[in-house]
Amino acid sequence: MVVDRAPTDIDEAGWHWLRVRHVTGFPRNARDGYFPRHGVTRPAATTETDLPPVGEGGEDLPADAATVADADRLALETTYLSGKWLVERSPETVNDLWEAVVEDVAAERFWDAKVTTRAGREAFDETDHAVLVFTPNYFDRDDVERVRRRLRETHGVREEIRYRPDVYTLDGAHEEVLGELTDSGAARFRA
């Protein structure tokens, strides 16, 4: 392990996030087996026919359907299709969840993850730590839901959590397209 310290032990100023690669030593692109193992289309191979439906099935959209569809098209255009489930955990419980999530990334059950450190939690003025569990292509709703089920069934994450596509966090250059989706509370899915 590259970093053998728990998120709650990291209090160095400026070190706000502990990423899986800090712990395992391998970058995201080293986990190529994730795609065939879970039948996920790589972002670069995703096409317009893969665009997810918007507003079907009673989905609670974070903005009007046209804005969500525009954001999906922007994600496709930029191949910025990753996203993450946000799980909040207290300092007393975050280390155990983080260790289990790292094991799941190493075993390619999850694609990627990061967690706020103690320094990050304090810098962001938060009570709880944020554990972010990423999927590589949010257009693949089956994979997004598979990760959520594992968080629920294996890791005991039973409260409602939200899934936020990374395209929603693009800088101001795309604010006209993204509109209210840039709000930190906007989420594509909640479960």
What does this structure look like?
- The protein has a six-stranded antiparallel sheet.
- The protein is of the alpha+beta class and 191 residues long.
- The chain is built from seven helices and six strands; from the N terminus they run E-H-H-H-E-H-E-H-E-H-E-H-E.
- It has helices at 20-24, 34-38, 65-78, 94-106, 118-123, 141-153, 175-178; strands at 17-19, 83-89, 112-116, 129-135, 162-165, 189-190.
Feature tags:
191 residues, alpha+beta
Low-confidence stretches: none
Shape: globular
Biggest sheet: strand arrangement: 1-3-4-2-5-6
- Class by SSE composition: alpha+beta
Helix content: 25-40%
Report how far the terminal alpha carbons are from each other: 33 Å
Give a short account of the largest sheet. 6 strands, antiparallel
| Tally of alpha and pi helices | 7
Compute the gyration radius: what is it?
A: 16 Å
| Overall pLDDT metric | 89
How many runs of DSSP E, i.e. beta strands? 6
Strand % is: 5-15%
What series of H and E elements makes up the topology? EHHHEHEHEHEHE
